[in-house]
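Slide 14.
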Amino acid sequence: MSIALARKNQHLRACVLDLATVCEVAGGNIKRAGLSRRISTMPGDIRRKLPVGYDVIMFCDIGLVSEQLLKSAHNGLPPGGLVVVVDRYLSDDRTKPLDRLLGSFVGSSVQLATRSDMVARVRSCGFQAVKARSVCGDLWCITGNKSSKP
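Slide 15: predicted structure.
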């Protein structure tokens, strides 16, 4: 996803923060895409400290993103920075998708949320122009901007 964003937005710089094994695979993909100068990888844990100095912070497939994590992202982004949250969210009536619901009953550690829940949470953490769009079925991309005014 960082590669796609960097290709579409020539001014963006990004850092993939994930498990070391994921960063290793991502690094190869980034190099093949010719984007090593603009996208870096950093093995780490999002529950500790987010990297700073980047234009976009993206959370992918981690379930309900905590207020603490979104506020940390807001604090670390420059004015005009972008937060992107991508995940499969529950329908607003919390009855679909069935496989996501079943996963929560059999011990998945992913906390479930509706698209509306995440939109409200992103807004509550200071992001503006929050938008949600369906990428495919129950896969949603939610974006929000940090105000460009300091």
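Speaker note: The mean pLDDT is 85.
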